[in-house]
Amino acid sequence: MSEPREGDQPVRRTNWTMIGLIAGLILLAMLVGYFARSRGGNQDKLTNAQVSNEIVPAREKQCASAATYDLIKTELFRRAAQLRGSDQAAYDRLSAYAVVRMENPVMEGEDSSTGAVNCSGSLSLDLPPGVAAAGGRRTLVSDVDYTVQQAADKTGTVVLLRNADAIITPLATLARVEQPATQRPAPVEANGVAPETAPSNEVQAAPAPSQSSAATPSFDCAGARSRGEVAVCADPGLAALDRNMASQYGRAFAVAAPEQRVLLRDTARRFYAYRDRCPDRKCIADAYVGRIREIHDIIEDRWQPPQ
Amino acid sequence: MSEPVLETRGLKRSFVQAGVTIEVLRGVDLAIAPGEIVGLLGPSGSGKSTLLQAVGLLEGGFSGSIRINGQEAAKLNGADRTDLRRDALGFVYQFHHLLPDFDARENVMLPQLIKGRGAEEARLRAEQLLGLLGLSERLEHRPSKLSGGEQQRVAVARALANKPPLVLADEPTGNLDEHTADAVLAQFLTLVREEGSAALVATHNERLAARMDRVVRLHEGRLG
Predict the structure, then answer these.
(1) What is the pLDDT of residues A12-40, one digit of tens each?
(2) Who contacts B4 (Cβ-Cβ below 8 Å, separation ≥6)?
(3) Which of A289, A198, A299 has its CA nearest to residue A252?
(4) How many other β-carbons are positioned within 10 Å of the β-carbon of residue B45?
(5) What is the DSSP letter of A203?
């Protein structure tokens, strides 16, 4: 077999299109490699600092959440009943109608190993109408420390409460008080919310706490039309909540600045509309508790529009 | 001889700090007869407060026996311990721990109302005790408006309001100047005797302890 001669070789032509395509692919591969190395495999994940910054606000919110306040309220009534040594069932019932407010809730720290969040704040407990603590007090206050953490059996959140004796001790003396004479106070607002007459401060001799049997809300039940009004007029517990709310509203309105009064009226309309759409008793009770909290938030300039 | 109002046997308590176990109480045996006032002496850190916490049923983590009014504390559940603490014990602390939003009379009424006594009866009892302690003119003063000695006397009245068989006092005059401490302690001892209660009074002051019926000393976790 003979060697091919030089003159027999085919003529090679430069294919610039192919060269450009290959160069482009190489450049693309280099760019991908560069960014892969420079940003690492976790470039879509938050850094530890970013994660920390994201978690902290969520944990801070635990100090000031409605769920935490409800747990605190339950714990206050449980420990008061335990101290009293009787009436646990009555205390459980009353707990549902009491309102807890926390001023200046602050996250003091956290235990990263358990996820527990330590908080502090100024706690106020508003008792429902018809009962009072020693000396006729219906609002009990104390600076408290509390820890929010997962239950040991992982069934939910628990709150450990400290320094609350200034509330628990008088709460253990809870007794019925004389109800004011039934009267219809003049409405002070277009929404029909009127201040409640202050109850008598006379504490009866060593009674067990109990609820009033008569359903007497702040408005005249003879004129009840909406579903919410009818439900409140048929339920002494809801009626007590209505009187409590009306009382809080009246007191708040009396001291409110003009812009706060506007807010009180506007939010009242929304509250009544919501209450009247409630399908059951629990929804109505929750709405009243939320409304009482909302009134306090407005008067203390902490109110934020619902999202 | 009547049954002791307080009896401890082999009472032990230890703490673990930084991996080191510290035995604070190493088997304390103590008996206090009804109406007897016993001084508990010991230097700071000797475990006096720990012993009072134990017999006051304020903390767990102890081993050994504590009998109060004939009831074995270890056999009681949480609610029964609370009942026993409420009905059988009165407490006076170095700091008064009065409720700031309640006046002197109300602070003394509170434990009575919790126990179920009527408001009028509780008021009369509070006024009687505060009167015996020289505070008749201070009934409606809140703690912040009372002197340190007056605050501590209100705390004494509160501790005795329910006529407890046993009063536990932890350095009850430790926060007062010497002159006031003498006066408050004298009134405390007089009132405890008049009420027929027994008392266990922790102090590191030998002079004050000498005014009690008997003195026991806590040393290295045991009573001497």
Answers:
(1) 667 888 888 888 888 888 887 776 555 54
(2) B31, B32, B33, B34, B67
(3) A299
(4) 10
(5) B
Instruction: List beta partners, residue B26.
Output: B12
What ipTM, to 2 d.p.? Answer: 0.73
Q: Is B214 left (phi over 0), alpha (psi -120 to 50) or beta?
A: beta
Residues of B in contact with A170 (CB under 8 A): 99, 102, 110
Whether residue B113 and residue A206 make contact (CB cut-off 8 A), yes or no, is yes
Task: Please tell me the total number of residues recorded for chain B in this structure.
Answer: 224
Contacts of A85 in chain B (CB under 8 A): 79, 82-83, 86
- Residue scoring higher pLDDT (B5 or A209): B5
Is A169 in CB contact (< 8 Å) with chain B?
yes
Task: Give the other-Cβ count within 10 Å of A97's Cβ.
Answer: 22
Would you call B33 an interface residue with chain A, using a CB distance cutoff of 8 Å? no
The bridge status of strand A131-132 relative to strand A99-111 is: unpaired
Per the CB < 8 A criterion, the answer to whether B106 and B95 are in contact is no
In angstroms, what separates the C-alpha of B158 from chain A's closest C-alpha? 13
State phi, psi for B64 to the nearest 5 degrees: 105, -175
Query: Scanning every residue of chain B, which has its alpha carbon at the shortest distance from the alpha carbon of A83?
Result: B82
Please state the rounded mean pLDDT for residues B191-213.
Answer: 91
Contacts of B121 in chain A (CB under 8 A): 205
Residue A83 touches partner B, C-beta closer than 8 Å:
yes
pLDDT tens digits, one per residue of A240-284: 888 888 888 888 888 888 888 889 988 998 899 889 888 888 888
> Could you tell me which chain A residue has the CA closest to the CA of B86?
A83
Predicted TM-score of the model (pTM):
0.63
